[in-house]
Batch of 2 targets.
Target 1
Amino acid sequence: MLRFEKRDKTPVRLRVLVPICSVLLGLLVGSIVMLFARVNPVRVYGAIVKGAFGSAYTFSETLVIAVPLILISAGLCLVYRMKFFNIGAKGQYIIGAICGSYLALFGPATMSRPLLLTLMMLLGTLGGALWAVIPALLKVYWNVNEVIATLLLNYIASYILWFFMYGTWRDPGSHGFPLSKNFALNAQLPRIIAAPSRLHIGLFFGVAAAVIVWIIIRKTRFGYEARVLGENERAARYAGINVVKTVIIGAVISGGLAGLAGIAHTSAVLRVLQLEINSDYGYTAIIAAWLAGLDPLVAIGVSVLLAALEAGGYQIQIVMRVPFGIVGVIESSILFCLLAGEIITHYRVTLTRRLSTPLALDERARGGA
Amino acid sequence: MEGQEQLMLVMGNITKRFPGIVANDHVNFELRKGEIHTLLGENGAGKSTLMNVLDGIYYPDEGEIAIEGKRVNLRSPLDSMKHSIGMIHQNFMLVASLSVIENVVLGLESQGFYIDKKSVAHQIEAIAKKYNFRVDPYAKIWQLSVGEQQRVEIIKTLFKGARILILDEPTAVLTPQESEELFGILREMKSEGKSIIFISHKLNEVMSVSDRITVLRKGRLVGTVDTASITERELAKMMIGRDILFRLERKDIEQGREVLTVEDAQAYNDRGTMALNKLSITVHGGEIMGVAGVAGNGQVELAECITGLRHLVSGHITVEGIDVTNATPCTLASAGVNYIPADRLGVGLVPNLSTVENAMLRKYRQQPMCRGAFIDYGAACTYADGLIEKFDIAVPLKNAPVKVLSGGNMQKLLLAREIEENPRLLIAEHPTRGLDVGATEFVRKTLLEQRDHGVAVLLISEDLDEILMVADRVAVMYEGRIVGIVDAHHVDIAQIGLMMAGAVGVKA
Ligand SMILES: Nc1ncnc2c1ncn2[C@@H]1O[C@H](COP(=O)(O)OP(=O)(O)OP(=O)(O)O)[C@@H](O)[C@H]1O
Ligand SMILES: [Mg+2]
């Protein structure tokens, strides 16, 4: 018989070991499914690892995917702690990409590269922040559920992108495809290692953002207020915490980072605005944030792992001609095992049997005592 | 001494450790058939822990449990239920939006998908009738008073066939009349051969209701005694290991200026009905104003209005002459208004944050904890240490969530935090609810000390004895207004009782 008891503190050893074992277990479960699909799991995993970490190039491509995940999940770690359930990172990412791209496409062509890029990043951040502030305002003033509001805003953002891509922003030379014209060199965020790698300086933004958010949560007044608010709103009000202000600042940070992720990825990796700008990173980052226990530094590692699955997944699809569905199966079995592993890190699970302590009970039951 | 057939339950050598503390240290406990057995001990002595072991919530690190001579292994509340153990927890475990019927059958295995509401309702009514009380099976929990909810809990356990009933501080939230009714129910159960474990800090109740008393101190068993063979004073000594003052010394001090004035206050409660009905009251510095009244007559709302947690529809509140009507809690904090709410974990403390983070809740904007945008957690820790030391709070681990503190120590922490701010006006709502005699004495002494320092104290309590013991004047509240104010030194208790029931309105 299994028994669960909540732990007060998780030993560091477990916090490292459990996720590793969970991933391994997930791989095992995934391979069982693959056997049924008559695919050799060893070869598939080999291909994934090779596809994700096999060479400097593939690893850098993994990091390319990890960058937006790191940026977005850092912000989510903060807002989820104040129980503002922003699931609209996707929309904020898109709006960020649109806002930043505006400068890239229609800004003054003569502007120096650093200045233009700085402005683009700022505008993208601002756009994402704005897109997150809307549901925050709706929540604090009219008590509108932010889960629904942010979700719906994702759709609106997608359609705004459609509107521009099929409208005025479409490159006349694109043969009718919904593409903007290519970004000029001035508007391309620098990549940091030689081609064909697309890894860009957004990686530094991501790591910096994670560190800063970690400091905000752990060391600052605002982070303390956010945590108090998330745990007990009435106590927060009694403590004199400005609920409206705190939620809005949180939304700005989280939306801003998602917007930054959107414009950085568009400007450095895609170098063109198009319908498909990988905005689903906004959903993957939600998983990264929760799996990381809302710790932005841990979220860096989780983001890389999730990115590796994704990058390796493309690889097996292309090289091994395995249906992409297999990737989904592997991904979900790993996620499932990681979530199950969470239980072990938060609860003490024991196999109960009769306790063997020698007892005064026998005498007492016999009527001694 | 006695044959085992009389023993309902034996717990032997129970040990339960938590990080930083041994909550139960080789505790032995036995319960006879048809007895009311009180578990007594200071806050944090390990009473709730021991009972949670019996209810299958915690699994002991060592020790064994036998029911009617047979060893049992209790791994979950469901297991305990199967062994006819039923527990009514310190905080009720009812689903507010569900009806009485639904709550009663919740988690019952024998009940299939379909609930035969009619038959359950009949059974509920039958149980209630047997013990001479009434409950509407179709009522939703949120519509019931605390006392009624408790009865639902009792019915729930009886419905599941409990023969061992554990009540963890059931009277802490009851009025004296409600407590008496509860004791009636318990005695009736006892006469049927059910065994009852009762936890309370109120020694007079313990003396009147129990057959035997087991005392715990700091996780260890002190002993089990027959109630008939011991006095309250001896009990208290057993519990805390020293003599205790049952009388408080009060100095005669000069009453100061008006600190709090509330004029014609009107406010709604959460359900949207008028809770304060043109209420007016004045409290002076160096005075403890007791507010007596049956729960739900606007006391909570009054406190919330004064502390800025509830909006006033009309009327005025001033503190030391400054208008603070509908001011923010922040403004009120700088005006020197401090609050010890009845709902500790709901308003006063943040359950999942640590003791340190809770201790700094009202101070984090000030030096030395605040350094610009940053917080100096080292300074916060030092500050918390100061509070813990000065107010003698038992905190096993400073960085563990505050919710694992025992009820009494939570209250001490809250009190310490608020007093340490040097209030001008202190609003204390049921400040000794759930506290052991030692801690109760401590809290009352602290309130009197504050008064002696010229602080205006508004003491809201349902415990008339407490009010009469510490207050200078008593205001009686009924249906959102003060129906009378009397001098606490020359009172007619019968008259206060009548005023509380709304029978007379006297202005003094
Ligand atoms: N889940 C837990 N984790 C860590 N420590 C705990 C936990 N539960 C209780 N404790 C600690 O064990 C000790 C005993 O707590 P318990 O709640 O049993 O006391 P109690 O006798 O019921 O006190 P009170 O009269 O205040 O309710 C306390 O010091 C408390 O802080
Ligand atoms: Mg307790």
Target 2
Amino acid sequence: MKVLVPIKRVIDYNVKVRVKADNSNVDLANVKMAINPFCEIAVEEAVRLKEAGTATEVIAVSIGDKSCQEQLRTALALGADRAIQIDTDQNLDSINVAKLLQKVVEEEQPQLVILGKQAIDSDNNQTGQMLAALTGMPQGTFASAVSVDGDKVNVTREVDGGLQTIALNLPAIVTTDLRLNEPRYASLPNIMKAKRKPLDVKAAADFGIDLTSRTNLVKVTPPAERQAGIIVESIDELVEKLKNEAKVIS
Amino acid sequence: MSILVFAEHDNSQLKADTLKTVAAAQAMGGEIHLLVAGHNCQAVADAASKVNGVAKVLVADNAAYEHQLAENVSLLVTELAADYDHIVATALTTGKNFMPRVAALLDVAQISDIIAVESSDTFVRPIYAGNAIATVQSLDSKKVITVRPTGFDAVATDGSAEVVALDKATDAGTSSHVNDELSVSERPDLGAAGVVISGGRGMQNGDNFKLLDGIADKLGAAIGASRAAVDAGFVPNDMQVGQTGKIVAPDLYIAVGISGAIQHLAGMKDSKVIVAINKDAEAPIFQVADYGLVADLFDALPELESKL
Ligand SMILES: Cc1cc2nc3c(=O)[nH]c(=O)nc-3n(C[C@H](O)[C@@H](O)[C@H](O)COP(=O)(O)OP(=O)(O)OC[C@H]3O[C@@H](n4cnc5c(N)ncnc54)[C@H](O)[C@@H]3O)c2cc1C
Ligand SMILES: Cc1cc2nc3c(=O)[nH]c(=O)nc-3n(C[C@H](O)[C@H](O)[C@H](O)COP(=O)(O)OP(=O)(O)OC[C@H]3O[C@@H](n4cnc5c(N)ncnc54)[C@H](O)[C@@H]3O)c2cc1C
């Protein structure tokens, strides 16, 4: 079976983003970018399915401008077989990302699509669920375990109260949580090999989808900064401050 | 204008966070209907009818909704959505799971995790792990919105809304529930607790989390953790506080053996008072702490417990 893995290029998780002075957006000029960590987990899971003989082909897809080819090459170095870049310089709403991915699903007919549960930039947590609705597929979101069993996939999900396991008919959508796996590092030979793996580029405009944004970004502001506090010298002082100054304990 | 709010519950109890989501809906303006979708969930419907600001409670009590599978619930909500301008749910695991499906079925964008309402179409939400705050206007005719409970104050519960039973059973037939492994705890919910004490990698193992128990007992606190503590298997996943775990804003948050990575801060920096206990004076957690104690946690925790 084919596995499709949509990946997103985002700010590196170690970088603290800054807001532009004119409050129009965040400033991403010269900021280190990387594959969204949840997408990296998605690639790893797909590659493990292939190594286990369950998957036959792993296809990575990313929607963005040419720079996201860098993240597609990362996915190829981690073990994806081929990649598709859907070229656009628009900042698309999740619904429009999902619509483009729906077209890729129709064309590639994967049995499993594995996405990240959220992109760490916009923190939307929407795309996988939207793609599931558009394709009529069931979904296993926030997955910490995935096991394919005949024409079904069992997904264990991280939920507020603990864990929940559900069974989905294939084809299905899975979105990854942190505990699903620990992604490998790409080896140098694999990075070299990835350069020769196929990477198709398609124009987003050619998919015949209205990609007009449904949202208007009014402004982006920095969060309220916390006032720096004090260092207490002892537990006694801490307890005294919490009782009499902060008044949060009695 | 009319607003459909999805009630978070476990078939027996209405989650307190729903009261905050109703508060957010009130700020959007319009008649509010609260949807209880579940199975054998009459107790939830009763509780829902008391929520202030709610004009009507719709109850879809059917086996198809017992585990609130996204496939089934999204069909129900999408069908009901025809009569509403806003569809609103709490940004907890159930709402996060099915709401984007509803948005896609309605062919609209979703605005996730709002912390404030500017007007009926404009909302405020944190992005980039809370390091930027975006004000976003929805241009769609129907707004699909999830609410971060820490942004709103709960409405009271002395109302008496009309309860209407819905005769619906939308079963997509593509998914089924296998089993739950839910954590049992006598402690308050992380999201609802007035005090939270969290342990990080510095706790060294799961056994040492017992050092937090006595303090939590004395303060009526919930216990949380950093991702590192969860990944290392010290404690279960539902204890993770942070950008990609639970978002909390208690009156008092005590971080023990936690360095203060941006992803952790994203989940707790709106707490009223933050205390950090860490042996490294340079740990970034001290930059957001109101009271920092540079100490070895294995000395500090027993002493703190004895002095409370
Ligand atoms: C300040 C600001 C505020 C915004 N507010 C909103 C808003 O309120 N609502 C809204 O709909 N949009 C909003 N956007 C646009 C939003 O950032 C989208 O552009 C977003 O990139 C698309 O989905 P996501 O990354 O949020 O998806 P998520 O649902 O968070 O990502 C989940 C997964 O979807 C897949 N995925 C996401 N994007 C791609 C991609 N480009 N290519 C391949 N796979 C992908 C990945 O597997 C990813 O792990 C905002 C943008 C900005 C700059
Ligand atoms: C995609 C993504 C999502 C993430 N989401 C989250 C999230 O939701 N929540 C989250 O918490 N993290 C999250 N992280 C992880 C985050 O980046 C950090 O790795 C994590 O928060 C570190 O946990 P920690 O502070 O417990 O561990 P460390 O950074 O290792 O810090 C341990 C601290 O304990 C102190 N210490 C050690 N021994 C003692 C002692 N005896 N006494 C006192 N202090 C001691 C040390 O000085 C140190 O400061 C995410 C990361 C990624 C990439």
